[in-house]
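so my prof wants the structure for this chain in the tokens format not the other one, which i didnt know existed until like an hour ago. anyway here's the sequence
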Amino acid sequence: MTASTLTRRPIPETVAAARSLFDSGATSSAAARTRRLHALRRLITENESAFEQALAADLRKSPDEARLTETGVVVGEINHALRHLRRWARPKRGPVPTALLPGRAQLVPEPLGVVLVIAPWNYPVQLLLNPLVGVLAAGNTAVLKPSELAPATSALVARLVPRYFPDGAVGVVEGGVPETTELLARRFDHIVFTGSGTVGRIVMRAAAEHLTPVTLELGGKSPVWFDDDAGLRTAARRLAWAKFTNAGQTCVAPDYVMTTPDRVPALVDALGTAIEEMWGADPRTSPDYGRIVDERQFDRLVGYLDGLDVRVGGTHDRGDRYLAPTVVTLPGTAGRPLIGPDAAVSVLREEIFGPILPIVPVASAEEAVTVINGWDKPLALYVFSSSPRTRRLFERNTSSGAVVHNAALVHVAAAGLPFGGVGSSGMGAYHGTYSWRSFSHEKPVLRMPLRPDTLRLAQPPFGGYGPRIVQRLMRRG
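here's what i got, hopefully its the right format
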């Protein structure tokens, strides 16, 4: 069967092939897992220029940005998994309560089965293949659903996967809502979805029909607190880079910045300088600045600018899907929530997911904490402060998928840290050992020797001291 035939395989056959291969046991050995991780790495490294071209076609990503934020992240995740795979796969000694001695226990990791990965369009390589690393390392098979809104990348993945996984360990289903709906109607052993909360709820309802566990990465409005006057220039550059990379279309991009009113002018000026240093006086001509994915998203973003005080950027071109890196300032809104569905301005009602950065004045860090806690838990929180007390304030009094001090976005590239949300920003986590845990089941195996037969103390007929001894031992743990 040729690669071109495999890419057109109907959904039932794609899922059945992955299920059949898993049931055969061909994916469970350490050698098989290692071999498939190497195959995935070759798929990327041998076709890096093709991925760069596809990402440029879909999102106008530069080759350097593609390597930094897409292919390089996945290769790093693969290398991390290969270094640690044998340790992860080793059975671990489990605790045995005194009442069950001389029994011995182990926790034996086993793969879950067939995992469905549904990826978004904004990082169509990283967010499709990064979860796949953990899926394969844990000994599973996978069905990938790339985003139809990144068609060049989707087509490339569909063409390459059969070449590097000819046994069907990884299948690809292209298409839009009908194909995703058909996939969700089928039984999987785990589903990974990255995208909006609205679609995340649909995925979770579908998964419930088969009692399928899910990992949901849903985004939200990731806030920033700034009060580090001495580090203003560096902080502004890091903020601008994190916000305007991929034209702001990043689930963990800084969504809005809170600072005290007196700091707003200096921060706006520093952001403007940082934008010009990185993308030039006219970012439209920069080879390193991306474009909005489609006209619908472009129109939504430009609509946010109506009536706002645009301090930096704001220029746009619908034909080119270009929206300049834009900084806006907003007044305080006494008596109304600052963010969330009841906010006074539309740009603060939902995740922006584009190159618009609002600067919002608040009286203090304590007020910023109140704002954050007044709506959904964010996927990330970024704190730029030289004060240990202020950093502790945000760590201890807010809840978010992650907290990063004096930087933003970079935690996604840390293979040893879990990546995931909490509450409305998602559930479950992956990366590194956390991928292993998500896509494996740690099966307890308890061995009780027949001699001495200590269990007789807990068996009828009850009488004497046996039950009392067992109860006392059970209470000791």
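also thought this was worth mentioning. The chain has 16 helices and 20 strands.
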